[in-house]
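Hi P.,

Sorry for the delay on this. The queue was packed all week, but I finally got your sequence through. Input first:
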Amino acid sequence: MGRMRWFAACAAAVMTLGCGGGGNAGNEPLPPAPSGAIVSIAINSSAPTVFLGATETFSAVATYTSGATQTVTGGAWTSDAPAVVGVDGRGQVIGLANGEATISIDYQGVRGSKHIRVLPNYGGSWIGNYTVVSCTNTEGFADQNVCGNFNVGQTFQYRLQFTQTADVVSGLTAIGLIGSTTTSSTVNADGSLTFTPQVFVGTVQIDLTWHLTSVVPNVINGTVTQTWTDVTTPGQMVVEGALQSPTKQSASSR
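Then the structure:
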């Protein structure tokens, strides 16, 4: 009798939660697969760029002959430049080195692809020191021995304050306590960045040229060149500095 009661209870439960577990018990019914054959697959990501060292999970959407679409589950993900962009079986992409790659997924005989660029994330607030490598001055600057304030081997502080959207970097820089004008620049194909703001102090104009590189996430190297001119003084002074890698104080990205 006890076993008969169990079967009766189980039969009633089949109409609701099922008997013995498993299946899609208690969930909404799964949508039917679209009819027809797959004609194309699109790979979706937040942007056509990935920051160096960053990860993002891409998704793929198949379009069928009926016009219906469905997210692809499964399929084989690959990268044509695995040293630049890595991808796993779930579509999780990681930027490994500056450069470009094509991410693809193969599913039911159809391939979808997306071209991706990996580049450094220069966005954020940075602070560090630069070391004077050389200083030359001419005419009035030489007469006043302005280079005497920038001896080879001497270090001075610098700051970078950048925002970055894809490959466009905007912001300002500072040498010592002197801030520059706001400037924008585009990250070069090799991941380097040339930034050329200006500084004004009274009648003195300082043209800055920052050559920045980053091949490791959150690490910047490079140089800064200061070209000093003065409307009241003939000649100029050029100070070359090698950057000591700055510390990233805060992050800012696309």
